[in-house]
């Protein structure tokens, strides 16, 4: 499908003056369906904020909380319980609303080992197509989902928050590489959601890329494989093992000891 931002880039290339030695300025790719935001790229600032201190090395664990719902660091026991239920609620929400998503990065590595999160993880990584991100932005942005565990003992509310700067699909100033978050409103822990786009449809139509420059071939991702993660239905990329080897090396799939 030809996105509107693709057409924008093509026209910009055709209409730009061919000045010898001068680079052709092409507008950044943007997402159709979010044009109503009318964002000024010159005013872009960081949208998601974490508690003060993590960026200075005080405690990198602080970087895994959304500052709006942060009331202090949770215990390891609460962290594990929070992430377990948050993943289940997220995957159920996406499946119930026919929204495509799959687990990625370190979360995918945890699935590879035992279909669960890695015991030392502080957040969760998922991915979506850019077309799914548009649906999230237009139909579900800042909605609150109510969750009750099967045994009725665990209750939580999660906010799905879409970064408005996701409209621009390039990295830009680098403040907004995360496109959306699924946030536990009790303690601020979250799931990072990043969207993949085809940045260069003319010369690389089968290459998908996120704003943090992770690149994938269509055949690496699709068709997605159905599996189980934290006890609920989940999807993983088609060539999950090759992707894990490229991102984390063979050691990550062989070593059984974790070094902090």
Automatic annotation (TrEMBL):
The keyword NAD does not apply. The keyword DNA-binding does not apply. GO terms for biological process: glycoprotein metabolic process. Keywords: Membrane, Signal, Transmembrane, Transmembrane helix. It is found in: Membrane. Residues 1-21 form the signal peptide. Residues 95-202, 210-248 form the LicD/FKTN/FKRP nucleotidyltransferase domain. GO terms for cellular component: membrane. Pfam families: LicD (PF04991). Its main location: membrane. It is a single-pass membrane protein. This is LicD/FKTN/FKRP nucleotidyltransferase domain-containing protein. It comes from Talaromyces islandicus (Penicillium islandicum).
């Amino acid at each position: 499908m030809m996105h509107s931002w693709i057409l924008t880039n093509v026209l910009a290339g055709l209409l730009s003056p061919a000045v010898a030695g001068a680079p052709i300025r092409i507008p950044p790719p943007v997402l159709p369906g979010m044009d109503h935001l009318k964002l000024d790229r010159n005013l872009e600032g960081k949208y998601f904020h974490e508690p003060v201190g993590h960026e200075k090395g005080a405690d990198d664990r602080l970087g895994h909380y959304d500052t709006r719902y942060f009331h202090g660091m949770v215990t390891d026991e609460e962290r594990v319980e929070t992430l377990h239920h948050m993943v289940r609620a997220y995957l159920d929400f996406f499946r119930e609303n026919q929204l495509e998503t799959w687990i990625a990065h370190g979360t995918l590595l945890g699935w590879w080992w035992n279909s669960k999160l890695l015991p030392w993880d502080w957040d969760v990584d998922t991915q979506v197509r850019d077309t799914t991100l548009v649906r999230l932005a237009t139909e579900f942005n800042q909605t609150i989902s109510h969750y009750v565990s099967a045994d009725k003992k665990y209750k939580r509310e999660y906010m799905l928050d879409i970064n408005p700067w996701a409209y621009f699909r390039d990295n830009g100033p680098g403040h907004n590489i995360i496109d959306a978050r699924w946030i536990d409103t009790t303690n601020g822990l979250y799931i990072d959601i990043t969207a993949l786009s085809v940045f260069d449809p003319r010369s690389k139509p089968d290459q998908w890329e996120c704003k943090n420059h992770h690149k994938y071939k269509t055949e690496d991702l699709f068709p997605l494989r159905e599996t189980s993660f934290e006890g609920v239905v989940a999807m993983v990329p088609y060539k999950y093992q090759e992707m894990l080897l490229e991102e984390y090396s063979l050691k990550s799939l062989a070593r059984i000891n974790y070094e902090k």
